[in-house]
């Protein structure tokens, strides 16, 4: 659990935060994120070996980078890796209103096969990442499919935005040596004067973007994960010759929607015959939250009683 002391320490140490920024003179915008106690909180529900914890940490940073671009509190961003014959079988994380959660399913006995220099194929086999943006407020739902190819998750995401989305982008993700701090940056070029989805006129070789891209690529993993360096200061180091403006600061937390009432509601929507098939000899239906590694025993009598009354 995250104690009040560690929350205070996180605030003082520039952790668990996302900043949105723009560089209006260059038609660029971006997000920078750093996770600390939130990462520990999410990982503490599991006992992941280092390579699995690391890839989930990177995916959580990516979720925070993309999710904090959503407008309003109702929007949700979900990242789900689906794989064939990979050591990682499933990786899921999501972002909603500043809250992150995630988990990984993997084959423990194949971890020994991992090469020390591991690319995405070594972890996922043949796979892809489905990135889903849901914005109920405007009834928008959008899904992008990112092939899990290349050296890293950052590279796969960057190629996806730059090539499939025609949205020139820089993505960097980093996890420090202890595994307790992770950070990332996303910088994107916007077509001149447009903030919407029309990107037909974006040129990958636009000289203004080239300048921003080169500056963005100078960020070091240690800058992304150093809790003593504020995110503002990291941006300032990168873009100090530019008119860089922080437009939003989003505190990040670990969050999950699992609770007895919610899960009881889900079970109640099953037919009586389905419920009877799920119930154990003590009269309980056990539902797992894989994000939190928690089991919720729901009493069937409770549900049937509520249905009769
Ligand atoms: Zn949960």
Features:
single chain; 309 residues; alpha+beta; six-stranded mixed β-sheet; five-stranded antiparallel β-sheet; 11 helices; 32% helix; globular; binds zinc ion
How would you describe the shape? globular
Widest β-sheet, arrangement of strands: 7-6-3-4-5-11
Unreliable parts: 196-200
Bound molecules: zinc ion
Radius of gyration: 21 Å
Structural class: alpha+beta
Q: What proportion strand?
A: 25-35%
Task: Give an overview in words.
This protein has 309 residues and is of the alpha+beta class. 32% of the residues lie in helices and 31% in strands. It is globular, with a radius of gyration of 21 Å. It binds zinc ion.
Q: How do you describe this structure in short?
A:
The protein is an alpha+beta fold. Helix content is 32%, strand content 31%.
SSE layout and pairing:
Elements (H helix, E strand, L loop, with lengths): L3 H9 L4 E7 L4 E8 L1 H7 L6 H18 L8 E9 L3 E9 L2 E8 L13 H5 L1 E10 L4 E8 L5 H12 L4 E7 L6 E8 L17 H10 L4 H5 L5 H9 L5 E7 L1 E2 L5 H9 L3 H7 L5 E6 L4 E6 H9 L1
Parallel strand pairs: 5-11
Antiparallel strand pairs: 1-2, 1-10, 2-9, 3-4, 3-6, 4-5, 6-7, 8-9, 12-13
The site of zinc ion has 6 residues, from loops.
């Amino acid at each position: 659990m995250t104690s009040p002391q560690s929350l205070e320490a996180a605030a003082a140490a520039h952790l668990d935060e996302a900043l949105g920024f723009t560089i209006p003179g260059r038609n660029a915008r971006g997000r920078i994120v750093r996770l600390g106690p939130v990462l520990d909180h999410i990982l503490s529900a599991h006992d992941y070996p280092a390579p699995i914890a690391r890839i989930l940490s990177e995916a959580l940073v990516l979720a925070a980078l993309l999710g904090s671009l959503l407008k309003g509190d109702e929007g949700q961003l979900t990242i789900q890796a689906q794989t064939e014959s990979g050591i990682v079988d499933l990786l899921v994380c999501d972002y909603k209103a500043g809250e992150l959660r995630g988990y990984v399913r993997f084959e423990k006995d194949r971890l020994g096969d991992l090469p020390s220099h591991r690319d995405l194929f070594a972890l996922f086999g043949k796979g892809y990442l489905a990135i889903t943006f849901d914005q109920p407020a405007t009834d928008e739902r959008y899904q992008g499919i990112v092939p899990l190819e290349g050296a890293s998750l950052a590279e796969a995401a960057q190629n996806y935005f730059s090539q499939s989305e025609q949205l020139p982008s820089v993505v960097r993700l980093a996890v420090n040596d202890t595994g307790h701090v992770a950070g990332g940056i996303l910088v994107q070029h916007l077509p001149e004067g447009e903030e919407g989805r029309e990107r037909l006129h974006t040129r990958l070789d636009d000289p203004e973007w080239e300048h921003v891209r080169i500056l963005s690529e100078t960020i070091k993993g240690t800058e992304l994960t150093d809790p003593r360096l504020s995110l503002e200061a990291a941006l300032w180091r990168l873009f100090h010759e530019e008119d860089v403006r922080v437009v939003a600061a989003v505190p990040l937390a670990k969050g999950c929607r699992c609770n007895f009432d919610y899960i009881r509601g889900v079970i109640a929507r099953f037919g009586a015959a389905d419920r009877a098939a799920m119930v154990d000899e003590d009269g309980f239906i056990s539902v797992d939250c894989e994000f939190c590694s928690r089991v919720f025993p729901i009493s069937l009598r409770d549900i049937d009683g509520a249905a009769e009354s």
